[in-house]
From TrEMBL:
Gene: tal
Subcellular location: Cytoplasm
Alphabetical list of InterPro entries matching this protein: Aldolase_TIM, TAL/FSA, Transaldolase_3B, Transaldolase_3B/F6P_aldolase, Transaldolase_AS, TSA/FSA_arc/bac
Species: Caldanaerobius fijiensis DSM 17918
Primary location class: cytoplasm
One Gene Ontology biological process: pentose-phosphate shunt
Family: Belongs to the transaldolase family. Type 3B subfamily.
Keywords: Cytoplasm, Pentose shunt, Schiff base, Transferase
Keyword hit for Transferase: yes
UniProt name for this protein: Probable transaldolase
Molecular functions per Gene Ontology: aldehyde-lyase activity; transaldolase activity
Cellular component terms (Gene Ontology): cytoplasm
Catalytic residue positions: 83 (schiff-base intermediate with substrate)
HAMAP family on file: Transaldolase_3b
Length: 216
């Protein structure tokens, strides 16, 4: 499973990119709004940092508007992927954009049927939102499992991005269930790095080394 970072914060993206573990970025209107900066500028800056798919979301609700915005965003950089909400208008936009060779990430997926429809419309990626399902006492992981099974059965090439990730167990389970990608907030990437036994091990090595008065 590959990792994308789920943020529009430039510092977080730079930091995660230096770790060598991320191969793409996802943003959404809320994440961009949090930065209080010009949308296009933020996307351009991200594209200069990460050499991989960068999702930028459209705001229009009709397919003509979505397609117009998508063409503008896709023109920014070759790596831009257009995030389209899972609606009937969204599917029409995905169909048009896929014919034009513009990659899409169908977002706000909460059922396997929605994922299947998005794939059939030509989506490059689908983004099932695990955390938001868990929030309403539904089973986000079951959704990943169902989509992975259906896509495998029908040899569907659309990639599954496990989204709305809240903690490292979400990442682990999504990987085991066959999600192609997890888009992970910076905080969760940092949580995944840490283990108390790693910290304790480093401390013990340092102490033993100092006691023996060794040098490199
Ligand atoms: C995915 O692409 C979305 O940006 C994101 O994962 C949404 O997560 P949230 O439910 O924590 O807002």
């Amino acid at each position: 499973m590959k990792f994308f970072i789920d943020t529009a914060n430039i510092e977080e993206i730079k930091e995660a990119n230096e770790l060598g573990v991320i191969s793409g970025v996802t943003t959404n209107p809320s994440l961009v709004a949090k930065e209080g900066r010009d949308f296009i500028e933020v996307i351009k800056e991200i594209a200069e940092i990460v050499d991989g798919p960068i999702s930028a979301e459209v705001i229009s609700e009709d397919h003509e508007g979505m397609v117009q915005e998508a063409r503008k965003l896709a023109g920014i950089h070759k790596n831009i992927v257009i995030k389209i909400p899972m609606t009937a208008e969204g599917l029409k936009a995905v169909k048009i954009l896929s014919k034009e060779g513009i990659k899409t990430n169908v977002t706000l997926i909460f059922s396997a049927n929605q994922a299947l429809l998005a794939a059939r419309a030509g989506a490059t990626y689908v983004s099932p939102f695990i955390g938001r399902l868990d929030d309403i006492s539904s089973d986000g992981m079951k959704l990943i499992e169902d989509i992975a099974q259906i896509f495998k059965t029908y040899d569907i090439k659309t990639e599954i991005i496990a989204a709305s990730v809240r903690h490292p167990v979400h990442v682990l389970t999504a990987a085991k269930l066959g999600a192609h990608i997890a888009t992970v907030p910076y905080k969760v990437i940092m949580q995944m790095i840490k283990h108390p036994l790693t910290d304790a091990g480093i401390e013990r090595f340092k102490e033993d080394w100092a006691k023996a008065n060794l040098k490199i």
